[in-house]
Every structure is written in structure tokens, then in C-alpha cells.
Design goal:
The structure holds two protein chains of two kinds.
Chain A: E1 29-32, H1 42-52, E2 54-55, E3 63-66, E4 73-76, H2 85-89, E5 95-98, E6 103-106, H3 116-120, E7 127-128, E8 135-136, H4 146-150, E9 156-159
Antiparallel strand pairs in A: 1-9, 3-4, 5-6, 7-8
Chain B: E1 12-17, E2 22-27, H1 29-35, H2 38-49, E3 63-66, E4 81-86, E5 96-101, H3 105-111, E6 116-120, E7 127-132, E8 135-140, H4 149-160, E9 165-168, H5 171-174, E10 182-184, E11 188-190, H6 195-202, E12 204-210, E13 215-216, H7 220-234, H8 248-254, E14 273-280, E15 288-294, H9 313-327, H10 331-347, E16 353-354, E17 357-358, H11 364-375, H12 381-384, H13 388-395, E18 406-408, E19 411-412, H14 429-439, H15 445-458, H16 470-481, H17 497-513, H18 544-553, H19 559-581, H20 585-588, H21 592-596, H22 614-628, H23 639-644, H24 648-656
Parallel strand pairs in B: 1-6, 7-12
Antiparallel strand pairs in B: 1-2, 3-4, 3-6, 4-5, 7-8, 9-12, 10-11, 14-15, 16-17, 18-19
Helix pairs in contact in B: 1-2, 2-17, 2-19, 7-18, 9-11, 14-15, 14-17, 15-17, 17-19, 17-22
């Protein structure tokens, strides 16, 4: 495991400031390697527990979708787009880029749960949480990326960290 | 043992009476606080509700599907459902037994709000149970009856949505084959026990679940931290002889990949689980098969260099595994029991062919014909559908060959060094297995995976490159069992009773929490300096279950009290055996002749194959019963032990049946 995983992340604090929706800093995002994935769904359960305190597949911000009877499977997860359609679509400017974490964060107190971001996302990676009624997307757990830590096979990794410069474009 | 926050359990049990066409609920947590969940909870329900004289196909029989308090959470390898009922496969006693199924169904049930489903009665016409987030109803299954397990799942997913998870029987269960499974997906099954036939007798075709809610946790942050620590300890070799690696040729040709056989599996490519995307059929060349394969279903292709060395090849073997899963037949019974037994009958000249089909285990056509005959009870298949042991009896053929394949209670060998000719286990380790067979209701995975498989897989015999040496194993064993002799290869009969007691309880906990039988308890490690399994935060491997349970449920209890919950269930199961089937020491001792036969492999430090010594084994049984707190003469639990475990009412009932004596009045 990379050393950064053990660092204590600094919480986001840019609430209220209007951030540009196309950002210059290279975002940090999760990457999913289909060949390594065993569809164990550990990432989903861990995500829900860490964000909601409840074990539930339905409340995860990453979704691995196995076909029970077929051989195929897919995953829906946030790419932390440079030009984020979810942020652009939000009428409340509730989705903002956190410069420190270099990820797009939903500011819950601004979100009205209108679902415009859900419509806008081309990766089906954001949804309105069924309990809180607020948009929920991957925030990389303020740097901890618990799903990456829980993945038994290394199918999930974090891309875009400074020390992993080689995988950038 | 109080607590403010309660989690882990969903809180509700679903009750179904098929005769009355009724569905209702009751609280689950009173059961959970005493009996954990899963198998433990089922034992209490059986004790309270299944009267002596009830048979597996009677409407009064209960069929219980029960995940546990950890199921659906991030506890690694926790997504199993325990299935309990009177067992049609068990022989000569159709007693209450248990099986377990992985996959996605158990978590879905928890997310739908239920800790278990208890089915009684018998439907007038085929039905299925539809469970949808806190709501349940029985629906007509007329159109599903007669279909295989794949088509049934497809139809129910079409009707209720692709996110629906289904347990179902195939034609074998409908036709009450005693070796019928309850299936889910393409590779998951509650295999042993013949519980598919119980569903068939009740005319319950399937249980379909949509669960989109969640399971609460008493201490969510501490729990998730704990399960991450457990997962990290698991993120490495299990000590299996071969580290699971994909074959690049199989990846290219057939889309081979690692697959978790249960949700939340933290093992990096378990060697027994694989999935394939595109395998062309041999028997049906027009078909392409895809899906999971696990463990014994890989045997249909044959395993070179072993006793099961038939040569149907990978493609046909894979196809055969899919066909038998579709019919809903028990792979283990077919590959370890019936097929090799029929081959021996053929070799001995007792059986010319199988209703005209030549007996040749190298040809897929023979296997295909065998499955077809059993699933539909055609010709000789009518007898074979009863399972190997009953078939020998019905056909009056090859009964003397049965002990070579079947160890006891109607079940084929498993980690016993005799009937099971693929899992390498030597003296003295199978002594523990023998004690477990003695008090079990089926092949006892308690010691099979927890003790014998664990020791052997970490040993230089099974893992010359990635395991531990014998002296190190004994050192680590001393920490868990309290003595080096519990694991040392030169220890003979010494210190073998305690591992059997301990793994008996641990096995029950695995089936009750629920957790994977293969990977818990964590004892040995190649990642710590002293080779004792430990998480990075210092948490001891054998304590993982305890910490996950207390943090999920919020139950404040000591580790000793947690162990005692397993002991409570072990004794309750025994009490049920004693009351309903007259279980006693004499019955337990029926396994001795099987273990008197010499073993299949040689312990290098012994130098020759040995069998059990009757006198020394009798002494070992005395030691075992004493540690269990049971009467050594009768093998029945004592009032003192039952009272200590909070089972005074059980003691009173046993005394009412004049099965035990009450020393003290309550």
C-alpha cells in the first residue's frame, strides 16, 4: 500500500467560494481494473459503511455490477473529470473542486437533491442517496479511499497522486 | 451483557406456513442474543418446533434459511446463508442437519430486512416466495415448475428485475432426490443434506429477494476499522499448496478469471473458485457456457495424478458442472460418492452398464446420462436419486463397497484420510476428524477445514514452498490449542480431543455469524515473525470473529462468553439429537469401523499407513465427552453443563423424556 493511504487527510474548507468548474490541477481518482476484479463487492459495502454507518450496497458511491448468470460484469465509479458535467449541471453550485484533495466534493448543505447531476454524469457515478436525499459521489474518503484499501486483488487503485506521476497524461 | 446500540441483526424473522398460505414476522434479536444467528438460531427453532418422529418430507418439518449478524456487512467472507432442516440425505437417521450457500442471496435478505426465513407446511400447488424490502408474499410457481435452476432464476429476474437474488431448486429437488441441492447463480449451492428435496416436498420452487435497504451497525467506525484489519490479514496466501494463479491460455481461450464465491470475499483469488466467460460445449456444441465453478465441480473434468483421474477434459467437465447445477444435483455426492462407487461396482462385475449406457468415467456422455437419470428418476436413476448409500441398499448391489467411499451418516468422505481420496491428510490429524464425524450429523467441516485442512495446507507436505515446517506449526498450534502436541506430527493420540471441541464450536460460530468455513479461524501466518496470525494492529487471528461480532451487534460480552455461545449451540444441537433420534455414545461409535481401515497416505514420521486403535480411540472419546461436559457412558449432555449454558429448560425436557437425570432442582 502506498504511504499516502495512511496520511490523515485535511478536511475540505472551500465552502461558499465559487470554484471554477473546469480545473487546472490534475484530479485524483479511483481506477478500476476489470481483469483483476472478482466482483466480491467489498468496495461497495465498505464505501457505504464509511459514508453512512450502514452496511448497504444501495448506498455505495461505487457500484460493481455482476451478472448473476452470465460471465460479464461492469463498474460505475467517479472519474473526477477535469471538466465535470455534474458540477456544471448543479444549479446550487453544490459540487466543488477541492484543491487540496483534488477531487470533486458535494457540499451537502447546498444540495437540494434535484438530481440534475445524476442526469449529467456520463458514468452513472453520482446518485441521490435514498436516505439523506442528498447527492452522493466518490470523495475519496478525504484521501483514505477505503474501497481501495479493502480491495483484495488490487483491482482498485488511486490514479493521479503526485508520486505516481508516471500514470498521468 | 447490555448495550445501547444494536446492529448486525436486521431485527425480523420471516415465518411462512405453506399449508395455510400465510406469511408473518417475529423479532429475531431475542434469538440472536442467545444463539447468534444462522445455524445457532435454527437449532433453537428446531428444538422448540420439530417433534420426535417428524420426517424430512412431513409438512411439520421446518426449512430454515438463515444468514447471520455479520452477513451483508464488510466482515470479510461473511455473506453465507445457512440452510437447516431434517436431512433426506442423512442415513440411517434423517436427522436435523445443516448446509451453507454463498453468493449474493444472504446479503440481499438482510438488506430486505430479515435475519432468516422459516418455512413450514406444504403448498397445495407449486409456489415461490417473493420478498421485497420488508414485504413478503407467496406466488404461483406453476410456470416455473419443471424448469432448471438457471431458467428459474432468469424468469424471476425478468419478472422482478435484474437486481433480484434467487434461491431455487431444479428438477432433482422437485422429484425429491435426496441429493438435490438448493442453488443460486451458476456456482453456489447448499449442497449437502438433500435440502432441495425438502423444498420439492413443500412445493416451494424458489425464494426471490429484492433488498435495497441496509444493515445497521452498533459501532460503525470501529467495526469498519476492525474489518479492514481482518481483510488485510486475509490479503495473502491461505497456506494452500498452490497459490491461485490464472492460466494465461485459459484466460485467452475461455475468459478464465478469479471470482469470489461470496460477497465480501477478501481472498486474493481463492484456488477453488473460477469464472469463465465463454466455454463451448462438448455434449452440446451449439451452446456456450459461462459462469462460476468451484471446488468439487471442477472434479467432473478429472484431476490428473489423483484417484479422480478420469479424462473428460476441461471443456466437458465445465459443461457437466453447469448441467448438474442446472438440474440441482449435489456435485460432491456425484464425484466423490456415486460415480466412483458405480465404477467399482462395474469393475467387480456387479453392473454391466447404466440402463444401456456404458460405464466409462472418461466419457462426458456417461456423466450426462447419469445426471439425467438421477434428476428425472429414470430407470436405475430412481434408486441413485436416493444417494449412493441408499441406492446400494435399494439395488442390493455393492453394499460392501460403500465404506470405501462413504464415511458415515450417508455422506461421502471428507478430510478423513479414507473415503475422500483427494484431500491429503495423515495420522494423527484425522483423529480429530474422526471425533468430529462421531458427533456430527453429516461430513463435519468443523474439523475438516478448521483443523485438518488448516494443518495440512500449511504443512511441508501440502505447501513445500509457501507453508511452515512441522516444528513451527507445533509452536503456533501451542498458542491456539494450549499444547504443541495438538499439532505435532509425532504426537499420536495426545491432545487430540481439545482441537475437536474447539473447532466444533468454531464451526458453529462460522455457520451462525456467518463466515466462510475455509478461511476462519485465522491461526497460522507467513506474514508475522512468529507465524501466529495477527492483524497489523496486533489483534490476534483467532479473535477476529469475536471482535467483528461485538462491534457489529453492540453486544457487550467477553471473549469467553462469546466462545460459550458456540458451546451453547453445540449442546442444544446435541440435545435435539438425543431427544429426537436417541443419539448416544453407541451411535457415535458407529464411525469406528470406517476409521479402523488403514489411511490413504503415510505420515513420514510414522512410516506406514495406520488405522484407528479401538481401545485408544475409546479413551480419546472419553476425553472428548469429558471436555464437552457430557456423560462418558451415554454421550448425553449433563444437567450441570446445560444449566451452565443457560439451557435449564432443555435439561428439564430431556429429563421428562427420561434421557438424563436431574441432580439438582431448578
Amino acid at each position: 500500500m502506498a504511504g499516502w493511504l495512511n496520511q490523515v487527510a485535511v478536511p475540505s474548507k472551500q465552502i461558499g467560494e465559487t470554484m471554477p468548474r473546469t480545473i487546472r490541477a490534475r484530479p485524483v481518482s479511483i481506477r478500476w481494473d476489470k481483469e483483476k476484479c472478482t466482483t466480491c463487492l467489498s468496495c461497495m459495502v465498505v464505501c457505504a459503511e464509511r459514508h453512512t454507518g450502514v452496511s448497504a450496497l444501495s448506498r455505495s458511491r461505487i457500484r460493481v455490477l455482476p451478472q448473476v448468470l452470465g460471465g460479464d460484469y461492469g463498474a460505475e465509479y467517479c472519474r473526477q473529470c477535469r471538466n465535470a458535467p455534474c458540477a456544471a449541471a448543479c444549479p446550487e453550485e453544490a459540487i466543488q473542486f477541492d484543491q487540496q484533495l483534488r477531487t470533486w466534493i458535494v457540499h451537502a448543505e447546498r444540495c437540494t437533491g434535484c438530481g440534475a447531476c445524476v442526469e449529467a454524469c456520463p458514468f452513472d457515478a453520482i446518485q441521490v442517496d435514498q436516505v439523506s436525499g442528498v447527492a452522493a459521489k466518490c470523495d475519496l474518503c478525504a484521501g483514505a479511499a477505503w474501497c481501495v484499501q479493502a480491495c483484495p486483488t488490487g483491482a482498485l487503485t488511486v490514479a493521479g497522486r503526485a508520486r505516481e506521476g508516471k500514470d498521468g497524461k | 451483557m447490555g448495550s445501547k446500540e444494536i446492529g448486525g441483526w436486521s431485527g425480523t424473522l420471516l415465518r411462512v406456513d405453506l399449508s395455510l398460505n400465510q406469511v408473518w414476522t417475529e423479532p429475531s434479536i431475542p434469538y440472536g442474543r442467545q444463539y447468534v444467528g444462522g445455524r445457532g438460531m435454527a437449532a433453537r427453532i428446531a428444538w422448540d418446533e420439530i417433534e420426535p418422529g417428524t420426517g424430512p418430507f412431513d409438512p411439520e418439518n421446518r426449512l430454515i434459511f438463515a444468514p447471520g449478524p455479520l452477513t451483508g456487512t464488510s466482515a470479510p467472507n461473511s455473506s453465507r446463508t445457512t440452510v437447516c432442516s431434517l436431512s433426506p440425505q442423512a442415513y440411517p437417521y434423517e436427522w436435523f442437519s445443516h448446509s451453507s450457500i454463498g453468493g449474493f442471496w444472504g446479503p440481499a435478505l438482510k438488506y430486505a430486512g430479515y435475519d432468516g426465513v422459516i418455512v413450514e407446511g406444504e403448498a397445495a400447488r407449486p409456489v415461490y416466495l417473493w420478498i421485497d424490502d420488508g414485504h413478503a408474499e407467496l406466488r404461483d410457481a406453476g410456470e416455473l415448475w419443471g424448469r432448471g435452476t438457471f431458467a428459474t432464476q432468469e424468469a424471476l429476474m425478468e419478472r422482478h428485475g435484474p437486481g433480484v437474488r434467487v434461491l431455487t431448486i431444479g428438477q432433482a429437488g422437485e422429484n425429491r432426490s435426496r441429493i438435490a441441492i438448493i442453488a443460486s447463480g451458476t456456482g453456489s449451492a447448499a449442497g449437502q443434506g438433500g435440502f432441495g428435496a425438502v423444498m420439492g416436498a413443500k412445493r416451494l420452487k424458489a425464494v426471490a429477494v429484492r433488498g435495497t435497504q441496509g444493515v445497521p451497525l452498533a459501532h460503525p467506525d470501529a467495526f469498519s476499522e476492525c474489518t479492514l484489519n481482518v481483510a488485510r490479514e486475509l490479503h495473502a496466501t491461505m497456506g494452500c499448496p498452490e497459490v491461485a494463479e490464472l492460466d494465461p491460455k485459459m484466460v485467452r481461450k475461455f475468459g478464465q478469471r478469479h471470482v469470489a464465491c461470496s460477497q465480501q470475499c477478501a481472498i486474493d483469488g481463492c484456488w477453488i473458485s473460477r469464472s469463465y466467460a465463454k466455454v463451448p460445449g462438448v455434449l452440446h456444441p451449439e451452446r456456450t457456457y459461462s459462469g462460476a465453478i468451484a471446488c468439487e465441480s471442477a472434479l467432473f473434468g478429472g484431476v490428473e495424478g489423483t484417484y479422480y483421474d478420469w479424462r473428460t477434459g476441461f471443456r466437458a467437465g465445465y459443461e457437466l458442472a453447469q448441467i448438474s447445477q442446472d438440474y440441482g444435483l449435489n456435485h460432491w455426492e456425484l464425484a466423490i460418492g456415486i460415480a466412483p462407487w458405480l465404477r467399482r461396482c462395474h469393475q467387480e462385475g456387479m453392473l454391466a452398464d447404466l440402463d444401456g449406457v456404458p460405464i466409462d468415467l472418461d466419457t462426458p456422455e456417461w456423466w450426462d446420462a447419469l445426471f439425467d437419470k438421477i434428476a428425472f428418476r429414470k430407470g436405475v436413476g430412481d434408486a441413485l436419486a436416493e444417494g449412493g448409500v441408499r441406492a446400494a441398499n435399494v439395488l442390493g448391489m455393492g453394499e460392501e463397497l460403500i465404506p470405501e467411499f462413504y464415511t458415515a451418516w450417508g455422506f461421502a468422505g471428507h478430510w478423513d484420510g479414507r473415503g475422500d481420496k483427494i484431500n491429503l491428510v495423515i495420522f494423527p490429524y484425522w483423529l480429530v476428524t474422526a471425533l468430529q464425524w462421531a458427533t456430527s450429523t453429516r461430513d463435519p467441516l468443523a474439523s475438516g477445514h478448521g483443523y485438518a485442512q488448516n494443518v495440512m495446507n500449511w504443512s511441508p507436505m501440502r505447501s513445500p514452498n509457501r507453508g511452515l515446517d512441522w516444528e513451527t506449526l507445533a509452536d503456533v498450534g501451542a498458542r491456539f490449542y494450549g499444547s504443541r502436541e495438538a499439532v505435532h506430527p509425532e504426537s499420536g493420540y495426545e491432545a487430540k480431543a481439545w482441537p475437536a471441541v474447539l473447532h466444533g464450536r468454531r464451526s458453529i460460530m462460522k455457520d451462525s455469524l456467518t463466515l466462510c468455513d475455509q478461511v476462519y479461524p485465522r491461526i497460522y501466518s507467513v506474514k508475522t515473525r512468529d507465524h501466529f496470525a495477527r492483524a497489523e494492529n496486533g489483534m490476534a487471528g483467532p479473535s477476529f470473529e469475536y471482535h467483528m461480532f461485538r462491534l457489529a451487534t453492540g453486544m457487550e460480552l467477553s471473549e469467553d462468553e462469546f466462545e460459550q455461545m458456540g458451546e451453547r449451540v453445540f449442546n442444544l444441537e446435541r440435545a435435539l439429537q438425543v431427544r429426537n433420534w436417541g443419539r448416544c455414545r453407541g451411535v457415535d461409535e458407529q464411525i469406528i469401523p470406517e476409521f479402523e481401515r488403514v489411511e490413504n497416505w503415510v505420515n513420514p514420521s510414522v512410516g506406514e499407513k495406520v488405522g484407528v486403535d479401538r481401545e485408544r480411540f475409546a479413551a480419546l472419546l472419553d476425553e472428548y465427552y469429558t471436555l464437552l461436559g457430557w456423560d462418558t457412558e451415554t454421550g448425553r449432555p449433563t444437567q450441570v453443563k446445560l444449566r451452565e449454558l443457560g439451557l435449564s429448560d432443555v435439561a428439564t425436557e430431556l429429563a421428562r423424556h427420561r434421557l438424563i437425570e436431574l441432580i439438582e432442582q431448578d
